[in-house]
Amino acid sequence: MVSIRAQPIGCELSYYTHLKMVTITKRDLVIKLSNETGLTQQEVFAVVQGTLDSITEELAKGNSVVMRNFGAFQVREVKGKIGRNPKDPSKDVPIPPRAVVKFKPGKEMKEKVARILPSLQEEGV
After folding, report:
1. Cα distance between residue 39 and residue 52, in whole Å
2. Is the separation of the CB atoms in 91 and 84 below 8 Å?
3. For 1-125, where are the alpha helices, taking DSSP H only?
4. 99 - beta bridge partners?
5. Which of 30, 51, 58, 62 has the fewest CB atoms lying closer than 10 Å?
């Protein structure tokens, strides 16, 4: 993904159909929310960071975090397997089992994201 800081965020989808996809950072979200709510950037940052920290803490305990219409974060186990060393493919490398976070988007998010398919196909992403 290309990061282009000069592009405005929060615009309608039709505005982006002819532009490259951009990377939105936490700072970009804080600025946007600050402008929309009238709260200071420091206040918004505290809320955003607190939310992310709480989600991380709950996942670290093995709990799931569900936000209706947005999605669900769940901790899953990825089983161990035998991999190959790219520098020496004849050697097996054991990859241990590990816990990973999976995200399942909610219905509303799926529907909104599905609308950008034509612009993704034009870009050849």
Report:
1. 19
2. yes
3. 13-16, 26-37, 41-60, 107-114, 117-123
4. 77
5. 62
Q: Residue 70 above 50 pLDDT? A: yes
Q: Output DSSP code: residue 9.
A: S
How many residues are listed for the chain in this entry? 125
pLDDT at 5: 42
Residue 103 makes CB contacts below 8 A (sequence gap 6+) with: 71, 72, 73, 74
Q: Which of the four pLDDT bands, split at 50, 70 and 90, describes residue 17?
A: very low
Q: What value does the mean pLDDT take over residues 100-111?
A: 95
Chain centroid to Cα 54, Å, comes to 16
Q: Do the Cβ atoms of 71 and 64 come closer than 8 Å? A: no
